[in-house]
Structure formats: C-alpha cells, structure tokens
C-alpha cells in the first residue's frame, strides 16, 4: 500500500468533497472563498495511485493578530478507500505542512460523531455544540 500526497490539486479535492459531503452527507454549502485563497493548503491523498481523500488547512483569517493559529477541515475519504488509515495520514500531513508554514496550534470544527478520532490524535473540545447545516459540530484544538 502506497500513500502519496499532493498539494493544491483542488480539482481532485473538489471531486472527493462533492462525493462525501454533498452526495453522501447531504451538505449544500460545501465550497467557499477559503478554497480560492492562495494561503489555503489543499492536501489530496492517493492510495496506490488512485484518488482517495483530501483535507484543507489555512491560517485563521479572522484572527490575523494570531499568525500561529490555523484551521483544519474538509477531511474526507472516498467510501471505497476507507479503513486504510487515510484520515489520520491526511491529518498528520496537513499538520506538518501547517507547521512548516508557521502554525503553532490547529483548530477544527468537527462533526460531533467523529470527535473520538480527533481526540486520539491529541485534540481537545471547546465551546458549545453548533449546527453546521443539519449536523452537530464542536470546535477542537491542538498545539503543534
């Protein structure tokens, strides 16, 4: 099993996010201006050469006074590629790239049903549970 990562392949990331978040999970507002910002890092994963998943990370644009604060999200793995540890690999690669770009802490708005995954990688919950469209989410953070 070979996992390969690329950066900034938004066409492949768009394909994965459309399938997972829109078609599978029913989200309508999946894409935003953050996707087009030059500071956003799109990470795409390929398993044995086949498109498998994606994620994105970016500096917290709403808090420019905290340059080390980054946001992670849009982690998605295609259904046929799940179970191979790609989610954890995409998260680790995104954290690595964010650290290289100056991140000292990562924040994410997790679907509540997947908080145990993030907790296993060192994230802690904070703030209230909020609805993002029809799904409960909570903020989580980790020092890098």
UniProtKB/TrEMBL annotation:
Name the UniProt record assigns to this protein: GNAT family N-acetyltransferase
Thylakoid as UniProt keyword: no
Keyword Cytoplasm: no
Keywords assigned by UniProt, alphabetized: Acyltransferase, Transferase
Gene3D superfamilies according to UniProt: 3.40.630.30
Upper taxonomic lineage: Bacteria, Bacillati, Actinomycetota, Coriobacteriia, Eggerthellales
Every N-acetyltransferase domain range: 1-144
InterPro entries xref list: Acyl_CoA_acyltransferase, Bact_Acetyltransf, GNAT_dom
Source organism of the structure: Gordonibacter faecis
């Amino acid at each position: 099993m070979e996992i390969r990562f690329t950066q900034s392949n938004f066409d492949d990331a768009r394909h994965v996010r459309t399938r997972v978040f829109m078609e599978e999970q029913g989200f309508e507002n999946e894409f935003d201006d953050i996707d087009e910002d030059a500071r956003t890092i799109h990470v795409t994963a390929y398993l044995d050469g086949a498109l498998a998943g994606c994620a994105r990370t970016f500096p917290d644009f709403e808090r420019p006074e905290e340059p080390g604060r980054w946001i992670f999200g849009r982690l998605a793995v295609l259904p046929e590629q799940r179970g191979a540890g790609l989610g954890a690999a995409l998260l680790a690669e995104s954290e690595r790239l964010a650290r290289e770009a100056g991140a000292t802490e990562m924040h994410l708005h997790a679907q509540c049903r997947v908080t145990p995954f993030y907790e296993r990688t060192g994230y802690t919950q904070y703030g209230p549970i909020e609805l993002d469209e029809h799904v409960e989410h909570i903020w989580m953070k980790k020092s890098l």
